[in-house]
Amino acid sequence: MSNHQPDVGSEMRVRVLFVCMGNICRSPTAQGVFRKLSETQGLQAVVETDSAGTHAYHAGEPPDRRARKTALRRGIDLSDLRARLVEPEDFRRFEYVLAMDQGNFHDLSRICPPGAEHKLRLFMDFAPHLRIREVPDPYYGTAGGFERVFDLVEAASVGLLADIRRRFFQGAFTIELRRVDKRSASTDP
Q: In a 3-state reduction of DSSP, which class is residue 17?
């Protein structure tokens, strides 16, 4: 990964885009979890989040009710989020463009402008201890799938925040990264 500094003018901001297929389940959950983690660490002024989908099936819609319900049970409100389609311009605006799975990674790589490839990653790469590369799509499953997504997203969010701190702030902030509770580890296949 490059040590590219964000193009933010005089104000240091790191922008993170979470991407799944329809932008109503996984990526808004990731955005909400990571936004909350950034806030609890006092970084809301320097970390900006957004989410998008590789397909416009649900553009303008709020997150899936099951995703919202799961998030609310865990203290995170997703009600202000609306689905949108990812654009090539997003690779200029964001330091991180994080795909939830290989299919979305492939779709994103097709619209990624030359020179921005270093920004595109799989989100679960930030939780290597789980040995899972993809956040599974819970859309056609049960409520348990949304719980699993939340657990995985929590684990990857902690790793992502550590990466942002290392790459962009080099210790300028003291961030206490708690260990994600054992639900993430105990639900491994």
A: strand
Q: Of residues 15, 20, 90, 165, which has the active-site annotation?
A: 20
Domain ranges for the chain:
14-186
Q: pTM, whole model, 2 decimals?
A: 0.86
Please give the CATH number for the structural domain made up of 14-186: 3.40.50.2300
- Listing DSSP states for 136-183 in one string gives ---TTS-HHHHHHHHHHHHHHHHHHHHHHIIIIITTSS----PPPPHH
**Residue of 15, 25, 26, 101 marked active site:** 26
Cβ-proximal residues to 72 (8 Å cutoff; 6+ apart), any chain: 78
End-to-end CA distance of the chain: 29
Residue 164's alpha-carbon distances to 21, 55, 67, 137, 161, in angstroms, are 25, 28, 26, 26, 5
Q: Is residue 80 flagged as an active site residue?
A: no
State pLDDT tens for residues 133-174: 999 999 999 889 999 999 999 999 999 999 999 998 875 544
Q: Is 137 one of the annotated active-site residues of the chain? A: yes
From 50, 64, 101, 137, active-site residue: 137
Asked about 20 being catalytic, the answer comes back as: yes
